[in-house]
Every structure is written in structure tokens, then in C-alpha cells.
Amino acid sequence: MSKSSTWQRVTKRRPCPVCGRPDWCMITGPADSPTAVICARTESQKQCGAAGWLHVLRDDGPTWPAWKRTIPAAVRQMCGPDRLDFGKLAAEFCAAVQPQALARLAASLGLSMSSLDRLHVGWASRHRAWSFPMTDVDGNVLGIRLRKPDGTKLSVKGGHEGLFIREGGAEGGRLLIAEGPTDTAALLDLEFFAVGRPSCTGGVKLLIEVVRRLRTPEVVIVADGDAPGLRGAESLAAVMTVLCPAVRIVTPPAGIKDARAWKRAGATTADVQAVIDAAAVRLLTVKATLRRKAGANYGR
């Protein structure tokens, strides 16, 4: 890079235009129109040692080598006046999927290509990760979850948590709520109507909207068998009992982590159905409290 470039640390007043954070990254160029960023968090084609990765934002600054001029569309948009269009980005990732690569992913996860397709899986080459859009009830993409080939999970910067909802529209009847996109895909493979929450505690407001809109008669929370998963399921169940007549919590058999591992262990639709039917129905409990007024006598 040019020796005449003056690099400064980002600040709260001038955060990194790539990742949006106020620390670690460096920036060069005018305050209102920087020419380049070394981002400590978002990868590019060029790594600048331990400082981070180079992102060229404008071509009218110092003379950059030709390969540095390849600016991802998402980076250009994030540096402009508009926010990143997650719907457009998710569509780009989805279009980049190669069938052979998707088949390998499905086989490695123990899932079908069909269930992954229904969740609009994509390939985010700039992140070297598979992508799963998180949406609201109307299908608007709020954020994008990433899953690297080694299983590492992260999200595209700037987004918000949403739900993993399959393509094909809403259904009535029993609704299963899973944690994460691959657990949701596993339940779809087993022919259940399922949506996924972003974590064991996330997505509550959106799930309330789903249940209200569908007038769901029964909700089944398919929780991971660990302590955080069970706590999150109990918290969600307390909310859902206000909204629908029947709420159940189920977990995979002992020794099996989650819904996807349950399917990989050989669970069939009938097996999961039997566990659901055997689970206790959570009902709304209303406690009446009498407040004693000063000088008042009750029970006479």
C-alpha cells in the first residue's frame, strides 16, 4: 500500500465502516469518505499481518494493486448511506450454492438437500461459510446465520435475530419449535411443521407473532438436553401457555444432544411422535391473590 497513506484507529465517532465497531480497526482517507479500511474482524482477499484484512472502499485514493480493487457488494453498501440489504445478500448466497457441495453438506449433517433448500441455505464465499437467513413472520430477512465447515457458528455483521422458517408458507395444527437451522431441518425431514429460533433464549417476540397469526392449537418445544436448552424451553413455555391451549416440552433421549443428532441416531417420525404424545401438557395457571385492606375483615 502507498507509504503516503495515513492510518488512524477507528473511534466511537468514526467507527469501522466494514464491521461497524469502534475499536481495533484502522481507517484512511477523509472522515466523510474513507478510501480504505483494515478491519480486524471481517476477512478479505488480503490480510495485513495481525492488524486485520484490507478493504478498499474507493478507487480514487492511493494507488492500490489491481487485486485490492475487488470490493464485495455488501461492503460497498455498508459503507454507503443505506444499510445492508440482507434479503438481497441472502439471495446472492443462495444463488451461489453448487449442488455437489450442498449434497456433501447434507450428508455431513445427516440431513436431506430438500430440507436445507426449504430453509434457503446459501454459500457465503467471502466468509467461507454456509448461510441461513433469519426472517420475520412475513419472510423479510432480518439477519444471516453462518456455519463454517468446521461447525463454527457466527452471523453477518449488522443483522438482527430472526426465525428459521421453511419455504412454503404457514400451516395450521401442531407447531414444533427447534433451536437453530439444522435442528429445524431435521424436524422438516421427519415431516413435522417446524420453525427454528436463533438460540435457546432468542426469537420469543417473533414466535409469539407466529402463534398468534396461525392460531396454533399446540406448541411443542424441542429443546436440547443440556441445562441452557431446558431453561430456555421452560421460559418459552411459560409465554406460550398464555397463547395456545396446549404446550409441551420434549428432549431427545439421554445421551443425544439435539434434534439433528436424534435423527442421525435413527429416530423416525413415529419415534418423535411417541415422545411428544407422552410429554405432559403445560396449562396456564392463574393464581388469585387477595389484598387485605387496613381495617377490613374477610371471611365474616
Description:
With 300 residues, the chain is α+β, with helices and mostly antiparallel strands. The protein has two domains: 1-82, no CATH class; 86-278, Dna Topoisomerase Vi A Subunit, Chain: A, domain 2, CATH 3.40.1360. It contains nine helices and 13 strands. The chain has helices spanning 73-79, 86-95, 99-109, 113-118, 181-189, 204-214, 227-240, 259-264, 269-278, and strands at residues 8-9, 26-28, 36-39, 53-56, 122-124, 129-135, 141-147, 153-155, 164-165, 175-179, 194-197, 218-222, 246-250. The strands form three sheets. Strands 9-11-10-12-13 form a five-stranded mixed β-sheet, with helices on both faces. A four-stranded antiparallel β-sheet has the order 1-2-3-4, with no helix packed on it. The chain starts with 7 loop residues before the first strand and ends in a 22-residue tail after the last helix. 34% of the residues are buried. Mean pLDDT is 83; it is low at 1-5 and 61-82.
Task: Write a compact overview of the structure shown.
This protein has 300 residues and is of the alpha+beta class. It has 2 domains: 1-82, no CATH class; 86-278, Dna Topoisomerase Vi A Subunit, Chain: A, domain 2 (3-Layer(aba) Sandwich), CATH 3.40.1360. Helices cover 28% and strands 18% of the residues.
